[in-house]
Inverse folding.
């Protein structure tokens, strides 16, 4: 009987030990999940902060742009937002209309007049047709509920760069390092909050393309046609960059190339057909430039020059941490093959996509019967 009792006691201890271990594992998983959530949002804050610094170069050495953990709070005065609006829409946000430019009054107290800055910023975003779904209410920004404002700035960075009106925002995941205090404060900040889906921004922007009224669009297309007829590359570039045209990814250095491509374009000029020509021209330039760049510099390729190629190919969400890997893959002769896949998917047929995916350097196994599926996906 004593042996049975001892065995039962041991079994109970074993069960309790197992339950404790499972509980500990569960707590560890929760801890890692909370830490990852805090780290990811801190990365987004850092990316937005870095982007603001690049957009507002004159403010780079001042205290206008605070540390990442204070960024949400300072947006309440709208000064950074209005100054940003002035950088990409100066007609909509005149410099003289920005209240408290150096934030001297804000250091004493937040004033209701600071809402004028927020409204100027909102009008600037409307002028470049950022989808309304991203734009926060003035009162929310003013009262400091600014997680959505960070999300809006993140989306605005993508949107403006697609229009080539601002520098790109660069992913810092894996590169950024935060202190234990910053992590703890962010975990507490996010405790009862729903973090926006930053990863969905590109898709949302693509689904909600730039829109303008029919009359404005037709006028913009006529300006494009006139520039082509006059063989005027600078005028064509200006017409392509007009918000009413709704054309994205217009590279400022490819005016002559766009003129050549559009001059030989036989189809009727529509927003869609012009956009396709712009993308195809970008891809052809990027492929040629990439080959020359890798042949010239190899592993020592300059980061900014390679990113210029990525940007022309509309490759978004590149990660600073992965730069060495990009170089290795490109030098591994996969660059041309990947470009061909992209071109086939965007401008070719299902057979073109199948042919591009079958390139031996990609090492993929393809099935001819699935060509339409590959092309669609």
């Amino acid at each position: 009987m004593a042996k049975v009792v001892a065995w039962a006691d041991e079994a109970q201890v074993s069960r309790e030990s197992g339950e404790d271990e499972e509980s500990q594992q569960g707590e560890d998983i929760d801890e890692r999940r909370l830490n990852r959530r805090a780290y990811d949002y801190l990365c987004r804050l850092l990316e937005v902060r870095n982007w603001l610094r690049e957009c507002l170069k004159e403010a780079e050495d001042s205290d206008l742009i605070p540390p990442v953990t204070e960024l949400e709070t300072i947006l309440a005065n709208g000064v950074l937002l209005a100054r940003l609006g002035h950088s990409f829409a100066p007609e909509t946000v005149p410099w003289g209309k920005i209240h408290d430019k150096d934030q001297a009054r804000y250091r004493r107290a937040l004033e209701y007049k600071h809402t004028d800055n927020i409204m100027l910023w909102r009008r600037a975003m409307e002028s470049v047709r950022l989808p309304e779904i991203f734009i926060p209410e003035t009162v929310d920004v003013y009262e400091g509920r600014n997680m959505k404002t960070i999300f809006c700035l993140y989306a605005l960075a993508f949107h403006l760069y697609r229009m080539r009106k601002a520098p790109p925002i660069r992913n810092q995941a894996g590169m950024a390092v935060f202190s234990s205090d910053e992590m703890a404060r962010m975990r507490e900040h996010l405790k009862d909050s729903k973090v926006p889906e930053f990863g969905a921004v590109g898709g949302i922007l693509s689904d909600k393309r730039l829109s303008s009224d029919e009359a404005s669009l037709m006028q913009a297309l006529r300006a494009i046609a006139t520039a082509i007829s006059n063989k005027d590359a600078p005028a064509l570039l200006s017409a392509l960059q007009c918000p009413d045209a709704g054309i994205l990814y217009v590279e400022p250095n490819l005016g002559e190339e766009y003129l050549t491509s559009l001059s030989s374009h036989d189809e009727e000029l529509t927003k869609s057909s012009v956009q396709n020509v712009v993308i195809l021209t970008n891809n052809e330039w990027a492929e040629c430039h990439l080959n020359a760049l890798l042949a010239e510099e190899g592993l020592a390729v300059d980061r900014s020059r390679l990113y210029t190629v990525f940007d022309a190919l509309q490759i978004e969400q590149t990660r600073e941490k992965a730069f060495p890997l990009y170089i290795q893959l490109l030098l591994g002769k996969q660059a041309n093959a990947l470009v061909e896949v992209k071109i086939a998917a965007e401008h070719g047929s299902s057979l073109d996509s199948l042919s591009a995916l079958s390139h031996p350097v990609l090492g993929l196994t393809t099935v001819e019967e699935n060509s339409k599926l590959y092309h669609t996906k």
